[in-house]
Write a structure and sequence with these properties.
Strand content: over 45%
Shape: globular
Number of strands: 45
Helix content: under 10%
Oligomer: single chain
Number of helices: 3
Structural class: mainly beta
Length: about 750
């Protein structure tokens, strides 16, 4: 591995030299150079090219052109990032460079932190909301163990919304597309008291008819229906103080996810595969069925047989206040936030017309956070630093109910047992009500020191602790039978941090080398458990990351090239896996493996001629388990879930001016992902082969840039593929979550 790193350093140096050689002594005109991008990846405004972190910045125009209105639409828009979901309105599975977590329980924490205007969105119930009226999205790759700190061993998604200003502005957009999909957004803002108080109010409404046909009822399902609103106030009584306050609300009343059903129990020898389950060529043949005899045989990935059409009801509320004092060469920043999230999701989990498995997810989360930072405020100084503290108080309550094999109850009904309850045969309503309370604390600091005019060193350290109290009960028939009770407390703490060097080769090229240590807190399993061992606390996982990189601009700043290479030592990994308990497939979370992850990434932006902008990003990833045994199976050497070897994205934008001052704008984009496994076993049936996805948009802009009207195509070639799979082997089925079909539409936007 040392040889690889040394070779990487040498290649970076050669690339830097080549870039410098190509740079002209004179700069091109402003309308031909690539615009500077300002990011806040290190808690202060900096030029993207000066930040020694692998970060992709997605501007508001980019997000608009790609139709991004939730976190799932960010999938593959940054190298090494993959996002999917098994749910309609909650629990996104976010992975960066193979690091993440597929646990969908509400007390779990992803390995990728999500932040909105500096506020940590800890609950997976709340991470699908808020994507409207955005200023920028930054994707930070690798552990952010100092400044972002909390459970960000994979990376962070830093979302900033548009701020109030002292200039009156108004924005509106209306989009209509396939499946009667309507997306309406509006925002207005301006001064309330000149130079003292400004506001911005924004809202979003999304609704469609659904893209999957339910043959049982004749209805369309997988329909969207949600709205959101945000009010921001910016108070600036003096030049040295500002207070940004926000309140936001999100309401989802769309459908619960309706997955595709795949039967696994073969009825004939010819339909039996080598693992004893249905052979792939017999999935839709009728020769395989689930435990209750059902099979979907029409090979139509846009149709289901569902006896229950549930709703994924999610309600979110948040309020925050960010106060900033400028104290000469210092800056004091306070970020205070309060959030709550409620979810009631009734799901036809078995994906069939039978009452085999139906789950009602019922969760509540409350969170208060406070961050206080004191930092230097003069970038011309040799030493720039930040110190701070963080506190979080969170309560998660869950009362999920899983109704299993209800159609079999008549077989067990007797005068003494009229309900047909038979827990020993898994014929029962299982529940696991619990309350988890967490108090989190952290102190941190980071310093950047200019050793010479060209060489800057960075050192950062953070200590974090989580006091967790889990009160858990596993029961049957809402408490008629109690299987398990547990009341446990434990403190999880560890250090994380950063060491780095950045060298400015010239004005246009920087190279860097960093070491980052990230960790994700241990905790308690929040799913169905039937034995004391399953609710024992799991430990922290840690990740030591080594990275080298180069950020460069050349050809008169018409080309921007950023590359990086990394190596991860991933220890005590928290693994979400399936296990068989009392004849029923359940999901467990435990420390199960160490992994070695390494790879390389590159991003390029080019403006070869003034009307044309080209972008591309590529990621090569090796992510495999070390020694790992689970439930008697050997997974050693298997690829980590959601970690394709190769991902690629590209886009082109052409702006053609017309004689009257208006313009035609054309955008095309495409992305590619190689094969993805959804399970630790790397079973072929639990994977998705490589796939290309393309999109396009063309529009007309008025001479004053205030009006834009156009048409778009997303998933242009109507590719059908799996975004996630839940396998329930004990019931003889896989549940496949499918992508959205091709969407053709028109839009109208207005900006004042």
């Amino acid at each position: 591995m040392k040889a690889v790193l040394f070779m990487g350093c040498a290649m970076l140096a050669l690339s830097a030299g080549a870039a410098a050689a190509q740079a002209s002594s004179t700069r091109a005109q402003d309308d031909t150079v690539i615009a500077e991008i300002v990011v806040t990846a290190q808690k202060r405004a900096e030029n993207l090219q000066d930040v020694p972190v692998s970060v992709t910045a997605l501007t508001a125009d980019t997000l608009s052109a790609r139709g991004v209105n939730n976190v799932l639409a960010l999938n593959n828009m940054a190298p090494g990032m993959r996002i999917s979901a098994n749910d309609a309105a909650a629990n996104p599975k976010i992975y960066i460079r193979g690091v993440g977590l597929s646990d969908f329980n509400p007390n779990a924490s992803s390995g990728v932190g999500v932040y909105v205007d500096g506020v940590y969105i800890g609950s997976p119930l709340a991470q699908m909301a808020g994507f409207y009226d955005l200023g920028q999205v930054e994707v930070l790759r690798g552990p952010q163990g100092t400044l972002y700190g909390r459970n960000t061993n994979g990376g962070a998604i830093n979302i900033t919304t548009k701020r109030p200003s002292q200039t009156f502005t108004a924005d509106a957009s209306l989009e209509y597309a396939t499946f009667n999909a309507v997306t309406a957004e509006a925002a207005v803002g301006g001064p309330i008291i000149a130079d003292k108080l400004a506001f911005r109010a924004a809202g979003q409404w999304v609704k469609d008819d659904g893209y999957t046909y339910n043959r049982v009822t004749g209805n369309d399902v997988n329909a969207a229906d949600h709205w959101a609103g945000r009010l921001s106030l910016l108070y600036t009584p003096t030049e040295d103080f500002e207070l940004l306050t926000q309140i936001n609300r999100y309401v989802n009343r769309g459908d619960a996810i309706a997955p595709q059903h795949r039967a696994l129990f073969p009825a004939t020898a010819a339909a039996t595969g080598p693992n004893g389950l249905c052979a792939p060529n017999a999935y839709a043949s009728g020769a395989c069925a689930d435990l209750l005899g059902y099979a979907d045989t029409d090979n139509n990935s846009r149709a289901v047989d569902a006896n229950v059409e549930g709703k994924d009801k999610v309600d979110l509320f948040g309020a925050s206040a960010q106060a900033t004092w400028s104290l000469g060469g210092l800056q004091l920043v306070s970020v205070t936030a309060w959030q709550w999230a409620h979810r009631n999701d009734l799901e036809n989990t078995d994906g069939s017309p039978a009452q085999m498995l139906e789950i009602n997810y019922r969760s509540r989360q409350r969170q208060f956070t406070q961050e206080l930072r004191l930092q230097s405020n003069d970038p011309s100084k040799r030493l720039n630093w930040v110190i701070g503290g963080y506190f979080m108080d969170e309560t998660v309550q869950d009362n999920t109910r899983q109704d299993t094999l209800r159609d079999l109850r008549p077989l067990f009904a007797t005068p003494d047992n009229p309900t047909g309850l038979s827990p020993e045969n898994s014929v029962a309503v299982f529940g696991w009500p619990y309350t988890q309370k967490t108090k989190g604390y952290a102190v941190f600091g980071q310093a950047d020191y200019k050793i010479t005019d060209k060489l800057t060193g960075t050192v950062g350290l953070r200590w974090s602790a989580d006091d967790k109290h889990m009160n858990y009960k596993s029961q049957i028939e809402d408490g008629l039978i109690v299987l398990l009770t547990s009341d446990q407390k434990k403190t999880f703490s560890d250090f994380s941090g950063r060491l780095g060097l950045r060298y400015a080769v010239n004005d246009d090229t920087n190279v860097y080398a960093t070491y980052n240590r990230g960790y994700k807190s241990g905790g308690f399993f929040g799913g169905l458990a039937t034995t004391p061992e399953e609710v024992e606390p799991y430990d922290n996982e840690t990740l030591d990351a080594y990275e080298v990189g180069m950020k460069s601009e050349f050809l008169d700043r018409r080309v921007r090239l950023n590359v990086s290479g990394f190596y991860y030592d991933y220890k005590n990994q928290q693994v979400f896996a399936q296990a068989l308990r009392n004849g029923l497939t359940v999901l467990v979370l435990d420390n199960a493996a160490n992994s070695k992850v390494y790879g390389g990434e590159a991003e390029i932006t080019a403006r070869p001629i003034q009307p044309l902008t080209l972008t591309a990003g590529v990621s090569l990833l090796h992510a495999k388990f070390g020694e790992y045994f689970s439930e008697g199976q050997d997974y050693t050497g298997n690829r980590l879930p959601q970690s394709p070897k190769l991902t690629f994205n590209t886009a082109a934008t052409w702006v053609a001016p017309l004689a009257n001052g208006s313009s035609i704008v054309a955008n095309v984009d495409a992305n590619y992902s190689s094969k993805v496994y959804f399970d630790n076993s790397n079973a072929e049936r639990l994977s998705q082969d490589s796939v290309w996805i393309a999109g396009a948009q063309v529009s007309w802009r008025s001479p004053d840039q205030k009006i834009e009207a156009g048409a778009f195509a997303r998933n242009l070639f109507d590719k059908t593929y799996v975004v996630s799979i839940s396998n329930i082997d004990s019931l003889g089925e896989d549940l496949l979550s499918m992508n959205r079909p091709r969407s053709l539409g028109v839009f109208l936007r207005y900006h004042y």
